[in-house]
Amino acid sequence: MLKPKWYLLILFFIVRNYTMAQDIHWSQFNDNPIFQNPANAGNFKGDYRFISNYRNQWRSVTVPFSTFNFSSDLKLNKFQNIGIGLLFFHDGTGDGKFKTVEFQSNISYKLNLTKDEKHVLRTGLNIGVNHRQVNFNLLSFDNQYNGINYDPTLPTNEIYTSQRNTNLSIGAGAIYEYKIDDIQKVSGGIGVYNINRPNQGFYNEIVKRDVRTCISIKGVKKINYDLNLLPSIQLNFQGKYKEIVVGSSVKYTLIDKPREYRAVYAGLWFRNRDAFYLTAGIDYQNWFAGLSYDINVSKLVPASNLRGGFEIAIRYIIFSFKPKKVVHRICPDYI
């Protein structure tokens, strides 16, 4: 039988997600670019990009928190400076099966600040439909304690008007890029979500979702012909919640030939007051696969035993065939 402190710990997780209702977060944030900033829609080399992410955490503590994400984006053929993207994510947490489902549409615009495109400004707009649902019948309440033990057959005496809530959210973002050469570059951006503060309460009381601000800076530094350093920092602020992630990956190119490309990645990251985590990845032609694992170092260590969660990211980019335009010249009669 679980000790009282474990029941309190599980209840803490349920209540925290139910009352604060923060947006989800990712360890491999650079491999989920549209979620990070709507201005990233269409910001890649290629024509069509597909990304899938999966995260599973706190399995050693309570019911695992499981999150799935899928996004797709492209650049418009006639307007290469405009990018559009769609994003879907599903998040399930806690004993109450607290579920969040969101569909997002994104559009971005690329503005070249200089003719050589070394300085670029990207702006983006995000519109999402958010649906949240919780099963109150799976939760435990004080009124179900009969003075000796917990009795699930007792009434909860809780009055809630709905177990579901659907709302519209609006976001915007901007990114500045400085391209040093074909490899080295630096970019920084800010994305702001839930600007309209949608109501997400399940009771008659209005519970507005806090604005989430995401600030990100990343770069590519060439070490030698095959080795690159990819440092990044990301800051998330949402109400009382503050997250700072800093770290770097290194990329080693194995093969770089026409129609043949291979590269491997390894990284170390730190999320403030929460976890260290390791990342590894591989490029194979147009495919990328990344894996990360969180090592929990917060006050939850006695329950987590340093175990946080793992995350998977998969990306596929399609390059459309573009035939070369051949200009035919008419030879003069005197030849």
Structure commentary:
With 335 residues, this protein is mainly beta. Helix content is 7%, strand content 51%. It is built from 3 helices and 14 strands. The protein has one domain (4-318): Porin, CATH 2.40.160.60. The termini are far apart.
Compact overview of the structure:
The protein has 335 residues and is mainly β. The chain has one domain (4-318): Outer membrane protein transport protein (OMPP1/FadL/TodX) (Porin, Beta Barrel), CATH 2.40.160.60.
The helix tally amounts to 3
Question: What structural category arises from helix and sheet content?
Answer: mainly beta
CATH superfamily: Outer membrane protein transport protein (OMPP1/FadL/TodX)
Average pLDDT number: 84
- Please give the domain count: 1
Strands of the widest sheet, in order across it, are 1-2-3-4-5-6-7-8-9-10-11-12-13-14
Largest sheet: 14 strands, antiparallel, barrel
Rg from Cα: 24 Å
* Amino-to-carboxy terminus distance: 99 Å
What is the strand tally?
14
What are its keywords?
14 strands; Porin; 335 residues; 14-stranded antiparallel beta barrel
Annotate the secondary structure layout:
Layout: H1 4-19, H2 33-36, E1 48-57, E2 65-75, E3 82-93, E4 98-112, E5 119-133, E6 164-179, E7 185-193, E8 212-222, E9 227-238, E10 241-257, E11 260-271, E12 275-284, E13 287-296, H3 301-304, E14 307-318
Antiparallel strand pairs: 1-2, 1-14, 2-3, 3-4, 4-5, 5-6, 6-7, 7-8, 8-9, 9-10, 10-11, 11-12, 12-13, 13-14
